[in-house]
Amino acid sequence: xxxxxxxxxxxxxxxxxxxxxxxxxxxxxxxxxxxxxxxxxxxxxxxxxxxxxxxxxxxxxxxxxxxxxxxxxxxxxxxxxxxxxxxxxxxxxxxxxxxxxxxxxxxxxxxxxxxxxxxxxxxxxxxxxxxxxxxxxxxxxxxxx
Length: 145
Hints:
By secondary structure, the chain is an alpha+beta fold. It has three helices and five strands. Helix 2 (about 50-65) packs antiparallel against helix 3. The termini are far apart.
């Protein structure tokens, strides 16, 4: 008696990784290059997925530059795309002791709403330890039906 052979569809995960200077200019460049990469992966400019992902990259990169900056150290953007299923955005910095949390700001606070946007747009987000030092903030968008 033989067991039936089951073939699973192969899944190709596409990955883009780049380091940027921990400056506002580096954060802007991260967003622009991410948009370009999404378009290369057939997530067209102006689509709902592209706009949501660009906002996630912009917010996480701005947070890395503002709150995770260590002088002389860069931040890193990693995009992982599983076609038709998921887009994962990782932004890593070297300041592990300052961990973000989505806390509702007061009505007169000038900041503190960025992670609320991340929580609203992303299917999931979390903060991971980065070895040897620092942290990674990960946000995922589900692209499936």
